[in-house]
Design goal:
The chain is about 25% helix and about 40% strand. The chain contains eight helices and 18 strands.
Length: about 300
């Protein structure tokens, strides 16, 4: 029997028992991918990461990311959380300015901010988003989400696929109440996707309604195809979200440089995901997603 040590972090928060849960296996060199997938299913978090020796000279470590059902090439909360785990393990030197992790999409830069000798904040650089299909039948989509078509239509923004490595279907909502009312019925959503000629993408709902809490957007994300009923904080969707808002003129260039997506509230696990988009004439030049994380537990699997 072998034992495998892991760290349990809550990501996109500085408070235990909030944010998005993550399991990090910091010494995964002897694990086969099939076992990694089984472990991710056992942990039952939206993602689990496995840290391996670097595969290229321009990275500090190789990080593989698994949902309960699939390996994915990139994700935000696993990248931020793994960075904090490496700081806890002493892999990062105090006051180190950055680390480059080898993800499925390639080398990924993470900038580091320290306070009193401890990692305080991390910024993940993401690829410039690619914008895809704009499905027309919002009525069927609204039905699959259990909301009114007007909840989507009245925003004046399109439903659209966008990706910085993992594609999501972005669905604007007219109010936070509409976001909270949504409940995805997977069968109806699959039928909508087939009729629209789309894959079954994860669905990212958001509203620009402001209630004075400092959040730019209020959001939720459903990914049943990945084995994730709902995700508390989706960093991999947040970069393209910021890009979408810039692309469609929903925020100014000044606003785009400093945005916050508040996610996970309906789940009782609020996550604050910071987004910074640099753009000129709506042409995006830089995408960063950042946040904090807190270690809440350490454990060992015996297999």
């Amino acid at each position: 029997m072998r034992t495998y040590r892991y760290l349990h972090l809550d990501v996109f928060t500085d408070r235990p028992l909030q944010g998005n849960q993550l399991a990090v296996f910091p010494n995964a060199a002897n694990l086969e991918p099939v076992l990694m997938q089984s472990i991710a299913l056992e942990m039952a978090f939206s993602e689990t990461t496995f840290v391996l020796p670097p595969e290229t000279s321009d990275t500090h470590a190789r990080v593989r990311i698994f949902t309960p059902r699939d390996e994915i090439p990139m994700a935000g909360h696993p990248t931020i959380g793994t960075t904090f785990a490496l700081a806890h393990e002493g892999t990062l030197a105090p006051e180190q300015k950055s680390i480059t992790l080898g993800l499925g999409i390639g080398p990924t830069l993470v900038r580091l901010e320290w306070k009193a000798g401890r990692l305080h904040f991390a910024w993940m650089t993401q690829p410039i988003p690619e914008f895809g299909a704009i499905p027309a039948n919002t009525g069927d989509l609204a039905g699959a989400l259990g909301v009114k078509e007007a909840d989507i239509r009245d925003t004046g923004l399109p439903v659209q696929v966008a990706s910085s490595g993992v594609p999501f279907l972005y669905v604007p909502m007219s109010s936070r109440d509409a976001v909270n009312r949504a409940e995805l019925e997977r069968g109806a959503f699959v039928r909508f996707c087939r009729a629209a000629g789309l894959q079954e993408f994860p669905v990212f709902l958001f509203s620009l309604e402001s209630t004075g809490d400092g959040a730019t957007v209020f959001s939720r994300m459903f990914a049943p195809g990945f084995g994730v009923t709902e995700d508390a904080g989706t960093g991999g969707a947040s970069g393209p979200l910021g890009g979408y808002l810039v692309h469609h003129g929903a925020v100014s260039t000044e606003q785009a440089a400093r945005m916050v997506s508040l996610q996970g509230v309906k789940m009782g696990r609020p996550s604050e995901i910071h987004i910074s988009i640099a753009a000129r004439d709506r042409q995006i030049t830089d995408v960063r997603v950042g946040g904090q994380a807190v270690l809440v537990a350490e454990g060992t699997l015996s297999l």
